[in-house]
Specification:
Layout lengths: L27 E10 L2 H9 L8 H5 L9 E4 L11 E11 H7 L3 H13 L3 E8 L19 E9 L3 H10 L14 E3 L14 E10 L2 H8 L13 E7 L15
């Protein structure tokens, strides 16, 4: 729903990268959040609002991020298949962590979160930072990355039919073992309820973990299987890194979408 208080979990900008996501002028970051919810339908309803101060979800998030670029995806599994849980991926751009921490320091927010958790308790939350200000438009651009032997990636791409793309991805997962960790990697699709802009309605999100920066792996990733319905020229390739709070951080103040 928002960043509850992540001021203690600042990204490390000293790590090797081609173009860090930290903008010194605005002190903003691109973040990717993943977590599980009991119902994607209930989540979408709560995600859209209303929020404190009679704001919509979009108005609330606009206080601390570029809401027009915000994306929501989920794993596409039915609750029955997934034992009552659905994985959500929430991508937020140009997040002002200080402002995000400020807006949640009010009694209205506390009450809102109590009601939210009663209906849609989130579990297994992981926060990633994006290591670039702008995405690569092709996997071949990964050859520019220095000081790293492997990376975790978020691919955002427009497709003709998200569910067909996901089915093809899951069917071909075993063939991906040479260029990613197939146990962790997954494809997520837009939720049934309206949370993304109409321009991103057919955008899928693919998380690829432990991708080796070798010519062989990059060549395989760059290939396009025409049967999956990918729309040419729409790839956004982002390098992501898990963002961990220091041990002393208060775990009850973990980031939220």
């Amino acid at each position: 729903m928002c960043i509850r208080d992540s001021s203690r979990a600042q990204p490390d900008d000293n790590a090797a990268t081609t173009s860090p996501s930290h903008n010194p002028e605005h002190d903003r970051f691109h973040l990717v959040l993943t977590f599980n919810v009991p119902s994607i339908d209930i989540f979408c309803k709560l995600y859209n609002g209303p929020y404190p101060q009679n704001m919509s979800g979009a108005e609330w998030r606009q206080q601390y991020c570029d809401e027009a670029r915000t994306l929501v995806h989920y794993d596409g599994s039915s609750s029955q298949e997934n034992r009552g849980m659905n994985m959500v991926l929430n991508t937020l751009f140009n997040v002002d962590l200080r402002e995000a921490a400020r807006v949640v320091k009010c009694d209205e927010w506390k009450k809102f979160m109590e009601e939210y958790n009663e209906h849609c308790l989130e579990t297994d939350r992981i926060v990633y930072k994006i290591r670039q200000n702008k995405p690569f438009t092709a996997f071949t651009h990964l050859t520019k990355v220095c000081g790293m032997s492997q990376v975790n990636l978020l691919l955002l791409v427009q497709v003709q039919d998200p569910l067909t793309y996901k089915i093809k991805f899951d069917q071909n997962k075993e063939q991906s073992a040479s260029y990613c960790n197939t146990l962790l990697s997954k494809c997520l699709v837009p939720p049934p309820a309206s949370t993304n802009s109409t321009t991103n309605a057919n955008m899928v999100a693919v998380m690829l973990f432990d991708v080796p920066l070798t010519g062989h792996a990059i060549e395989h990733l760059e290939c396009v299987d025409e049967s999956v319905g990918e729309i040419a020229g729409t790839r956004q390739v982002w390098i992501i890194e898990e963002l961990k709070a220091p041990p002393a951080a208060n775990q009850s103040k973990r980031p939220a979408q």
